TrEMBL record:
Coiled-coil residue windows: 51-78
Ras-GAP domain mapped to chain residues: 177-393
Stored SMART domains: RasGAP
Residue ranges, annotated region (Disordered): 7-35
Gene Ontology MF terms: GTPase activator activity
Database matches in Pfam families: RasGAP (PF00616), RasGAP_C (PF03836)
Stated name of the protein: Ras GTPase-activating protein
Transmembrane feature ranges: none
InterPro entries: RasGAP_C, RasGAP_CS, RasGAP_dom, Rho_GTPase_activation_prot
Keyword Membrane part of the UniProt annotation: no
Keyword Coiled coil: yes
GO cellular component, one term: cell cortex
């Protein structure tokens, strides 16, 4: 029965707000609106969302939105893994550039770059898979285990565990059940954090597994979408002004001033020595004159950022607001005498310190801008983040006394920010809907996790390591699962780290085969209640399926049923006949009047809601399309970075003789044939590969060009690689045989520039973007 009326009922829970009448109220008959009936209506609607029979604009938009959310969830995990790889390799490649890495370490890094191969390695056998399925169902549905584990692991272990928790165990970031279970886990973690806190000032501030977990949560799809929507335009408009210097630190302003004087005159006056203390710099009249207008401009820009954030209250993801609510609630319980300002400082510590400010300071890492902002805008963004943090917390100027000059911004906005932080906490709880979600999970035929072998084994190992704390009793379900699995297998090599589909189930929960029967047994819902809701749902579904049938108002429900029963569509005919019979039966039971007044009103309201819902779905889909594209672009950037590292590592290993001591080989590696060393082959020159000025400018490789506009069509570049890791870029003008200019580039030099955050490569006539050049060379020479 649930399947038959699916799509039409899908919106009933949405159209009935928390303060509006329930679906069974106000109609003829004495069926009262109880909590049970409302819960049943919710459950019925959730089950109905599985229907695929309706194919109207709303259904197509919802399908598109579901697909987008699935893609974003999947891509977010891939990016999280890639970011971890890049962070690891950043440090390793830095050592390699400095020639401080042994050959064995080079091999380790090379293995870290290998992609998983689905043809290698072994899967766990069926019995093990069943045991893991039982274990992970238990972990997912009883979040307290993961909550305790997150507090027990070390900082070195937390990132791998968080990858599994945030992007696999609760990886469907837009699915309410998984989101609510994850938030339940946060509640346990935060409660324990507050219970063990010894002083108010240290709460949620230190870099602990808990704080790392909160930061990682904000990097999920909904958080990324919010940051993109709210901050991207504001940040991009700021960084366009590359030369706008708003430095307000007197010492830095003084240094910049005397450097400029020395550059202009060739010497420094005696009264402007180098190496002065901050107090002397701050007292200099010229420094004060430079800083004064900058202060006003910085505060003006900070105000524009603050206005944008305060206006975005309704766009803040539910989960982030709910965590803010828990912080406020737990603080009041632990410290009943805490002032509103103190409580808001803790909420701001999470919302700004862990969520907003990192995106402002490093917008490129959050996919809000293309590439690294230039020096001056980068500093301005840092100042804005400092101001917002000072606003959210009690400011301390002990380390940065110059920030005191910006204190008017803090004083003028205290009341506004406290109101916003309190308003963030004003969201409802989800416990009742989670109960419904759990019913739905037990009624599903399959719940699966896409999980890698190493995620599986690492979680197993951490659970086994802390078994006595997590499950001290022998009959504890978690301990029984771990005992059944035995010791955790070791981590597999990266190449064998396949993703498997793990079916989840529970041996201790009975699957719900019939939602109706289950609910009838557990509540005082009657068959008449069920028939009323099903009749309304089928009517809405028929109206959505037959164009123009609802144009005439008020609706004639019996006529709609009769029209459907006489169409040429067999499914609609069957539903039309069924709903006509149900209307007659409801009238005979005295549940509705002979004009179906209340049901007509409810169906009309439902249709109005669906029309509004379609617009909202389309708006959300359009927004998420942009988010998905941005996440995809970031993924491409991370992959190009890894490709550059692969190319460099390959070059280093070849230069060192393919694994012998450094300096034994150059160019290509030594080849052995039949155990004997063969002669080195002749080095193959790769290229030249030709690129036009227009092509490189369009792709962002040329960041700035001094070539006149009317001559750019005659300019082209030839790029050659005479030996691995070395490239020659030659700038040519059409019609001339010889190159106008040639530059010899080494891959390690480029990577070193990238490590030092040098953005541009000066080729005299053009300036090239270092990151884009690396990506171009990798694509052109390494992937061929």
């Amino acid at each position: 029965m649930v399947r038959a009326v699916a799509a039409a009922a899908a919106a009933s829970s949405d159209s009935t707000g928390p303060n509006s009448p329930g679906p069974l109220s106000g109609r003829k008959g004495s069926i009262s609106t109880t909590r049970s009936s409302h819960r049943y209506s919710q459950l019925y609607s959730m089950a109905a969302e599985q229907d695929v029979e309706v194919e109207d604009d709303l259904a197509r938009a919802q399908k598109r939105l579901r697909e987008l959310k699935t893609k974003i969830s999947s891509q977010s995990k891939k990016n999280f893994v890639l970011e971890r790889d890049v962070r690891y390799l950043d440090s390793r490649i830095a050592l390699l550039i400095q020639n401080r890495m042994a050959i064995a370490e080079q091999r380790e890094v090379a293995e870290h770059l290998e992609e998983a191969d689905s043809s290698d390695g072994l899967f766990p056998d069926d019995r093990k898979l069943q045991s893991y399925g039982n274990l992970f169902f238990l972990l997912q549905t009883e979040p307290r285990h993961i909550a305790t584990l997150c507090r027990l692991v070390s900082l070195t272990e937390i990132d791998t565990l968080l990858q599994t928790v945030m992007f696999t165990l609760y990886g469907n970031q837009y699915e309410s059940r998984e989101e609510h279970l994850l938030l339940t886990m946060f509640q346990s973690v935060l409660s324990a954090q507050f219970e063990t806190a010894t002083e108010f000032g240290s709460l949620l501030r230190a870099n602990t597994p808990v704080s790392r977990m909160m930061t990682t949560y904000t990097r999920r799809g909904p958080g990324q979408s919010y940051l993109k929507t709210v901050l991207s335009e504001r940040i991009n408009s700021l960084i366009e002004h590359k030369e706008l210097n708003l430095e307000v630190n007197p010492l830095k302003v003084y240094e910049q001033m005397i450097n400029q004087i020395e550059e202009n005159t060739g010497s420094l006056p005696a009264h402007l020595p180098r190496g002065v203390p901050p107090e002397t710099a701050a007292a200099n009249p010229d420094v004060q004159a430079i800083i004064a207008p900058r202060l006003s401009m910085v505060m003006e820009i900070a105000n524009s950022f603050l206005d944008t954030i305060l206006e975005s209250l309704d766009q803040v993801p539910y989960g982030i607001r709910w965590i803010c609510k828990q912080i406020r609630s737990l603080t009041k319980r632990k410290y009943p005498d805490a002032t509103d300002f103190s409580i808001c400082s803790l909420i701001g510590g999470f919302f700004f310190l862990r969520f907003i400010n990192p995106a402002i300071v490093t917008p490129q890492a959050y996919m809000l801008v293309d590439g690294l902002p230039s020096k001056h805008p980068r500093r301005t963004l840092t100042l804005i983040a400092k101001l917002l943090q000072n606003l959210a917390n009690k400011p301390s100027y002990a380390k940065e006394a110059y920030m005191m000059t910006l204190n008017p911004f803090v004083e003028n906005n205290k009341a506004r920010i406290n109101k916003f932080l309190n308003d963030l906490c004003e969201v409802g709880d989800f416990y009742e809907s989670l109960e419904m979600d759990q019913y739905m999970a037990l009624s599903k035929k399959e719940i699966n996790l896409n999980i890698t072998m190493n995620e599986l084994f690492n979680t197993h190992q951490l659970l086994a390591q802390h078994r006595d704390t997590l499950a001290p009793q022998e009959k504890h379900h978690l301990r029984m699962c771990l005992n059944e699995l035995g010791p955790a297998p070791p981590q597999v090599p990266r190449k064998e780290n396949k993703t498997i589909i793990l079916p989840l189930f529970s041996r201790w929960e009975t699957p719900i085969q019939d939602l109706h029967s289950t609910f009838l047994q557990e509540t005082n819902i009657t068959q008449a209640d069920i028939m009323y809701m099903e009749t309304k749902s089928i009517l809405v579904q028929l109206i959505r399926s037959i164009p123009g049938i609802a144009d005439k108002r008020p609706l004639d429900l019996m006529k709609i049923a009769e029209t459907a029963a006489t169409t040429k569509d067999a499914i609609l005919v069957r539903k039309g006949i069924k709903v006509k019979e149900m209307l007659i039966e409801l009238e005979a039971l005295n549940v509705v009047d002979d004009h179906f007044t209340f049901m007509t009103e409810e169906v009309t309201e439902e249709l109005r809601h669906l029309g509004n819902l379609r617009e909202k779905v389309n708006e959300e889909a359009a927004s998420l399309e942009s988010v998905y594209k941005t996440i995809g672009d970031h993924n491409n950037y991370l992959r190009s970075q890894l490709d550059s590292y692969k190319a460099y590592l390959q070059n280093v290993r070849m230069q060192s003789g393919g694994g012998n001591s450094p300096g034994q080989g150059s160019g290509v590696g030594v080849v052995t044939v039949g155990g004997k060393e063969a002669k080195k082959g002749k080095q193959q020159v790769l290229g030249p590969f030709k690129f036009t000025h227009h092509q490189l400018e369009k792709d962002g490789v040329i960041a700035e060009s001094n070539v006149p506009e009317n001559r750019r069509s005659n300019i082209f570049f030839n790029i050659t690689s005479p030996i691995p890791g070395t490239f020659i870029i030659a700038l040519h003008y059409k019609g001339r045989d010889k190159a106008i200019l040639e530059m010899d580039l080494k891959l390690d030099d480029l990577l070193e520039k990238q490590q030092d955050q040098v953005q541009l490569l000066d080729l005299e006539y053009v300036h090239l973007n270092v990151n884009k050049v690396l990506a171009l060379l990798t694509k052109t020479f390494i992937k061929r």
